[in-house]
Amino acid sequence: MLREWIQFLNRREIRFRAVFLSDYDMLLAERLVQGVDVWINTPRRPWEACGTSGMKVLVNGGLNLSTLDGWWEEAYAPEAGWAIGDGLEHGDDQACDASEARELYDRLEREVVPAFYRRDGQGIPPEWVARMRESMSRLTPEFSANRAVRQYVERHYLPAADAYRKRTARKGEFSRKAVVWRKDLDKKWNRVRFGALGVEDRDSRQVFSVEVDLAGLDPDGVRVELFANGREGKRADRWTMQTTGIPDPVKGCFLYLVDVPEGRPWTDYTPRIVAHHEGLSVPLEAPHILWQR
Ligand SMILES: *Cc1c(COP(=O)(O)O)cnc(C)c1O
Predict the structure, then answer these.
(1) Model pTM score
(2) Burial group, residue 175, by CB count within 10 angstroms (0-12, 13-18, 19+)
């Protein structure tokens, strides 16, 4: 691939217009992101892994002109930079490459270059500066390692440290109880069974009921859910089913109930049983799951 690039760059009409910079490293990256006015990045969707370079350009006052892919798809706003492509995937389609190339040159010729050279009496390009300000103020707080590390700390490291303290307090009382719970779950899980499933329309809601034989497990140690796959890229529908906690005197089963709004056929839904323990991460620490079939 590199050989092909070098051959391309050696063509007479290209030779004085493009360079290949080898051994991209932090030092070279630093020079580039500090030195450019516009950072152009033209991956074919969906091949931009992220686009960290574009973020480094932000804090240096450069502007981005890129395909709507990776970070730029999230970050792009017309006041803060320029975008190319329709945000869809076109595989190897040469006609799409050609139309995106035309779009790139059009945008450069009609928007980017004029905005850069339109200067006021003091030689300042007001439109360009406005975009720089917008790009820096709007995007740098969000697309930065500061934000990422802070989010890791707040969402994960601090809760993990809290959990550690909770689990080790009083000679590990919580942890010991959790181990007992987990062992009981492991021992009885293979005998947990679903019984009959019922569905009933009531007012504009569907009432689902299902019998569950918990094989001696404590109802507080599991959760019975009614599950349906998400539609059109949306999140899955998950409803927690409730039980009175009193088993059927004859069958020994618990009855679980939930009513859900109408709108999906009842056949979309499947009850399932998962482990449940306050303060533990499921399924990370207890991957048990049983689907009703
Ligand atoms: C920023 C940077 C990258 C990431 O580049 P992308 O254009 O986001 O793929 C890779 N290597 C070095 C040395 C960098 O500084």
Answers:
(1) 0.70
(2) middle
Alpha carbon of residue 167 to chain centroid: 30
Per the document, the length of the chain is 293
Evaluate: CB of 51 within 6 angstroms of ligand 1: yes
* Per-domain residue ranges of the chain: 35-143, 188-291
188-291 placed in CATH 1.10.3470: no
The contacts of residue 193 (CB under 8 Å, 6+ apart) are 212, 213, 215
Say if ligand 1 is within 6 A of residue 23 CB: no
* Share above pLDDT 90 across residues of the chain, in percent, rounded to a whole number: 93
Q: Which atom of ligand 1 is nearest to the CA of 41?
A: 7
Exposure class string for 3-19: b at 16+ Cβ within 10 A, else e: eeeeeeeeeeeeeeeee
Mean pLDDT for 242-260 is: 93
| Ligand 1 centre distance from Cα of residue 26 (Å) | 8
- Mean pLDDT (the chain) is 95
Q: Is the CB of 5 under 6 A from ligand 1?
A: no
Verify whether ligand 1 is closer than 6 Å to residue 152 (CB atom): no
The amino acid sitting at 106 is D
Pocket lining: 25 vs ligand 1, CB cutoff 6 Å: yes
Q: How would you list the strands of the sheet with 270-275, edge to edge?
A: 237-240, 222-228, 270-275, 289-291
pLDDT in tens, 33-71: 999 999 999 999 999 989 999 999 999 999 999 999 999
CA 2 to chain centre: 33
Of the pLDDT bands very low, low, confident and very high (cuts 50, 70, 90), residue 232 is: confident
